[in-house]
Amino acid sequence: MTNLFPRKRIGQHFLNDAALAERIVLASGVTHGDWVVEIGPGLGALTRPLLTHTGRVLAIELDERLPEHLMRVTAGLGELRVVSGDALRVDYRELAARLGGPLQIVANLPYYLSSQLLLHFLEQGDAIARMTLMFQDEVAQRIAARPGTKAYGTLSVLCGVWLASEILFTIPPTAFHPPPKVMSAVIRLTRRAQPLVPVEDPALFSRVVHAAFGQRRKVLSNALKVLDPAPAAWLQRAGIDPERRGETLSIAEFAGLTRAIQQESTA
Fold first, then answer.
1. What domains are there in the chain, each with its CATH number?
2. Which residues neighbour 200 within 8 Å (Cβ) at sequence distance 6 or greater?
């Protein structure tokens, strides 16, 4: 037992189901000798089985109370390195180079930062090979959503280009302390060897996607005005009906729209 209580201000919900933690680690596919990065290890529910299966874990923890506890509860299980700090500020490219190759991340992410963290991970390119992450079930559904569905949005498109996603299973609130008010889900995200469609300018692609979904009720001819007052020429060049909405576009169509904008800017 411990007297370390979750801090609401940093979104802590400690996993407290050992059998479920073991299931997550097995589903992640990590093997002995892998360096695994864990974000927000909390009290070590995932850290312990990760060390048992791999022998090497680098944990990134914002809460300054926890490193000493983590070292104590994992003693003898393997090599644990705890980095104190904000996972949003970590350069995972540098970390991958230091650890000797692309990273595998296994984590129960703080839900209030989960989308921001995922987008940060995407920016790290092929420094991250695979992620097995816990999200609110609603967010996991958005990541894996397909065009034309209610859940389809910015995360669906940006993740879909670079990552193959698979929702593995859901987790009840009772698996955490304190119990969140929502169901959770574990999703496995694997970096594609090649992007789903060619994207020459990832930064522009991201801006286009964010603009298209910024106000979901707006048709594209209006939604894209945050990028340019007259986006009709882009849509015409891309062969996209300006009366369509962002949630109807496939990832390939978003890539085509981005290319059209590039071509218009250089014409």
1. 8-191 (3.40.50.150), 202-266 (1.10.8.100)
2. 258, 259, 262
